[in-house]
């Protein structure tokens, strides 16, 4: 009797609560969310002080000689560090089709920080959505610069991913991809810098970018087959460094009128720069080879050498010209699933400007009014030891930089000095 009463009570409960005592098939949800990322730790050891980012996690180039009172080079001093700030977390979401297109969105961050002071704080990397039709697609949001090719970047252990030989960074953008046939694709991207940007002449982050009413525009053609990926692109990059300039009149030599007021003038001058990029990847079952080259002006926003300079321009406050930078690299690596050695070599230089008149100001990376990096090269060797989703990579690299005097056209020559830095790195990554 007790069992009968209990079964009757349970049956009544399910009826009242709207639940069935019979099994049912739950409908699949139209949305799917996946979490991805990795935990990573890196140890680095350097023989020389370098231009660096985030407590030596990313080394750019070895610094010029800095002699003390006894003639000893202060920068000939080593450094080392343990860091996990490039550990990453991301979310990918897919949902029902939109206007006949497959759709997904990605939000991803790491703990690299946006500045040296914000290291270990969460930094936005990617935040975009993509609509994919059969022969074309649209991407909008923050993702890679169009000059950074996800399938063609150095596989080095150093978190630099080839910086400053390879462009790096993300930009908020609109991107349209069109398949021309089964092998060729055309892409058009309009973007505005966000994570990195042109050197701000007024000290306000990204001001040359948002002061320009025209976005950067990039177009490229890409070829894909079973073993080859190749592409060529061209970019137009407009900046407006200042909307006003303060002109301070010279004080007369006799000093009779020292209180001459400064003159503030509206500035309509813009800086329009261009660049070209070409890349190639050959891939088979045993190994792959990647080649990349870029040449252009004002590549500061790509975390590369160079930038721009301002010049006196008569009645207008100033005019601008970009500093030309060239870079190329090659990366060769094994495709072995467990033990994969690799080799990287990169070269970059800056050629200055076409102007022979000394600039008013220089806004650039790797160059000042007196000294600058003429060129640099880096060679590195690594071995990836892989087991399931764990990877351990030791790497040895050597970077050589030529420093010299800055000429009026912002090329580097004269009192040249070659310095080098040896870096040993061990990287451990567990992906999920």
TrEMBL record:
Protein name: Beta-barrel porin-2, OmpL-like. bbp2
């Amino acid at each position: 009797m007790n069992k009968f009463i209990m079964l009757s009570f349970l049956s009544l409960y399910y009826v009242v609560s709207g639940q069935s005592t019979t099994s049912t098939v739950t409908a699949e949800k139209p949305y799917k969310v996946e979490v991805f990322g990795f935990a990573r730790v890196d140890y680095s050891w350097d023989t020389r002080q370098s231009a660096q980012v985030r407590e030596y996690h990313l080394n750019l180039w070895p610094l010029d000689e800095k002699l003390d009172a006894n003639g000893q080079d202060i920068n000939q001093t080593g450094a080392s560090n343990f860091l996990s700030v490039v550990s990453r977390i991301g979310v990918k979401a897919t949902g029902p089709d939109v206007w006949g297109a497959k759709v997904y969105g990605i939000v991803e961050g790491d703990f690299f920080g946006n500045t040296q002071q914000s290291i270990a704080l969460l930094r936005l990397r990617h935040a975009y959505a993509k609509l994919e039709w059969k022969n074309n697609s649209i991407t909008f949001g923050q993702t890679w610069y169009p000059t950074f090719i996800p399938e063609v970047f150095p596989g080095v252990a150093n978190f630099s991913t080839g910086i400053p030989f390879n462009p790096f960074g993300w930009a908020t953008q609109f991107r349209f991809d069109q398949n021309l046939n089964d092998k060729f694709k055309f892409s058009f991207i309009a973007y505005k810098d966000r994570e990195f940007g042109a050197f701000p002449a007024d000290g306000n982050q990204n001001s040359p970018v948002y002061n320009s009413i025209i976005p950067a525009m990039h177009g490229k053609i890409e070829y894909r087959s079973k073993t080859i990926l190749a592409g060529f692109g061209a970019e137009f990059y407009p900046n407006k460094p200042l909307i006003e300039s303060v002109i301070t009149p010279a004080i007369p030599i006799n000093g009779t009128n020292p209180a001459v007021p400064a003159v503030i003038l509206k500035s309509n001058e813009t800086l329009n720069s261009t660049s070209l990029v070409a890349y190639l990847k050959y891939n088979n079952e045993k190994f792959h080879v990647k080649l990349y080259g870029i040449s252009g002006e004002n590549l500061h926003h790509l975390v590369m050498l160079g930038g721009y300079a301002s010049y006196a321009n008569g009645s207008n406050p100033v005019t601008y010209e970009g500093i030309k930078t060239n870079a190329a690299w090659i990366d060769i690596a094994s495709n072995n699933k467990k033990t994969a050695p690799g080799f990287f070599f990169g070269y970059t230089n800056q050629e200055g400007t076409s102007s022979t008149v000394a600039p008013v100001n220089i806004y650039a990376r790797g160059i000042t009014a007196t000294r600058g990096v003429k060129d640099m090269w880096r060679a590195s060797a690594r071995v990836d030891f892989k087991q399931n989703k764990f990877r351990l990579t030791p790497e040895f690299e050597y970077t050589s930089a030529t420093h010299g005097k800055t000429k009026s056209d912002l090329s580097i020559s004269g009192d040249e000095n070659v310095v080098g830095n040896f870096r040993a790195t061990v990287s451990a990554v567990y992906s999920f």
